[in-house]
Amino acid sequence: MDFLEYIESHRDANLNELKEFLRIPSISTKTEHRADIARTARWVADRLREAGFANAEVVPTKLHPLVLADSLEAPGAPTILFYGHYDVQPADPLEFWTSPAFEPAVRDGKLYGRGTADDKGQVHIHLKALEALRKSQGKLPINIKVIIEGEEEVGSVSLWDFVARNKERLKADALVVSDTSMLAPGVPSVTYGLRGLNYYQVEVKGPAQDLHSGTFGGAVPNPITILAEAIAKLHDKNFRVTVPGFYDAVVALSAKERKALRSLPWKESDFRKMVGAPGLCGEKGFSTVERIWCRPTLELNGIWGGYSGEGSKTVIPSKAFAKISTRLVPNQNPAKIAKQVERHIRKLLPKTVHCKFEVLSTGKPWVAPFTHPIFRNAIQALQKGFGKKAVFIREGGSIPFVTQMHDTFKVPCVLIGFGLPDENAHAPDEHILLENYFSGIKSIAIFYSDLAQI
Ligand code: BES
Ligand code: MN
Ligand code: MN
């Protein structure tokens, strides 16, 4: 049997096995799920062993374990490092799920459940492609190293350390990742750029404790008003970030790239429908695609303080808080941007309040030319697997490991995503199109198989 027939005959078995993977609530941010995380790591290692990776192992770290394996039996063929993550985001708010987050269900050609698109479903695509190649041919046509982590959704902290101390073990000719999206249904895509991410928390403190707003209101600083005023000044009327120096290092888009982005099969009206807002807005002088993929931004992720329960409570709160993030593009330096953002926010606040500014995480952007022959290979494999034209895209999200591998080994990073932007990653009713899951397995098997020749 050739590997494509093997894949075709294992459709049901593969889908059932993916459901098993999805049922384990491997939420990396919550301590109460540590045992589930450990169970998921073992589950992945077991599946790798079944796929012929005899040395698959679970490697403990300070936080969540890594799963590692390799198969190096193809002399002369390239060595690929495959990376993915088995951890998922929390399922909250639970009440908005049509079917429970950890009870995968098929509706309308889509598989619903936390982790279907980000990233268990996409990791499973590789596991099943590799298994098909091994089972139908007796051995793999390429050399492959596998690293699947459990901390991506909390910043890949342990991975940093591991990569620094295990360079030889991870060294490869290229990195392959499936943790991104396709441009649109029927448009298989290879992603050549991601934005970096810095995350901050701001605490503004006025009075030493909460105060009666009748007794004190009018004569004391209200931290909510003061924080809101500062936040309102972080963008100007053209939606540009006002932090001094924020754009200084940003590399301008070339005319050639702008033209390529303009000619992608992407419709602004579909995007607006997907967003569901009455209108769109963003930095003046740039198209929507440029704004979400290629331009740096500053976003408010949360703001709280004072009373927000039922009814009224007359109070001047002692503190107000905000969670803020910046998405970064080449050549912005995350550490420098963090300092600039802190300095600017402190400057915007009056002397009547104290400010605590925390940098929760930083991460560099990644954009790379797709000149290496492996990219042509990826496009061709997608075209065969999907029977559709494949395109090169950038994306606005962040994957810390990609930047780290690119910086450490200077190898091509091939990001082949099988999700879709409207599949509710991190949100209720996350799902993956079954067609993309099945065509994904075929495409990846073709990709790895054809790589033997380059
Ligand atoms: N798979 C995503 C990254 C992604 C999202 C790539 C959208 C392309 C398009 C990843 O799991 C993720 O959610 N990353 C976080 C950052 C991380 C450090 C928590 C993100 O982008 O917010
Ligand atoms: Mn992901
Ligand atoms: Mn994610």
Describe the structure in your own words.
The chain is of the alpha+beta class and 454 residues long. The protein folds into 2 domains: 3-194 and 365-451, 3-Layer(aba) Sandwich (Aminopeptidase); 196-250 and 296-361, Alpha-Beta Plaits (2-Layer Sandwich), CATH 3.30.70. The protein is 35% helix and 20% strand. It has 15 helices and 19 strands. It has helices at residues 3-9, 11-23, 34-50, 120-137, 157-165, 167-170, 213-216, 223-232, 255-262, 268-275, 288-293, 334-348, 373-386, 400-409, 434-451; strands at residues 57-59, 66-71, 79-85, 105-107, 110-112, 143-149, 174-177, 189-191, 193-194, 196-205, 211-212, 297-305, 315-316, 319-328, 354-361, 366-367, 391-393, 413-417, 431-433. It has an 8-stranded mixed beta sheet, sandwiched between helices. A 4-stranded antiparallel beta sheet has the order 12-14-10-15, covered by helices on one side. It has a 3-stranded antiparallel beta sheet with strand order 4-5-19. Strand 4 (105-107) and strand 5 form a beta hairpin. The longest helix is centred in the N-terminal third of the chain and has 18 residues, at 120-137. It is globular and about 80 Å long. It starts with a helix and ends with a helix. The relative contact order is 0.19. The mean pLDDT is 97.
In CATH's first tier, which class of the largest domain applies? Alpha Beta
Strand order of the largest sheet: 1-2-6-3-7-18-8-17
Mass-distribution shape: globular
Q: What share of the residues lie within helices?
A: 25-40%
Poorly predicted runs = none
- Provide mean pLDDT, rounded: 97
Attached small molecules = ligand BES, manganese (II) ion
Q: Would you tell me which CATH topology of the largest domain applies? A: Aminopeptidase
Number of helices: 15
CATH superfamily of the largest domain: Zn peptidases
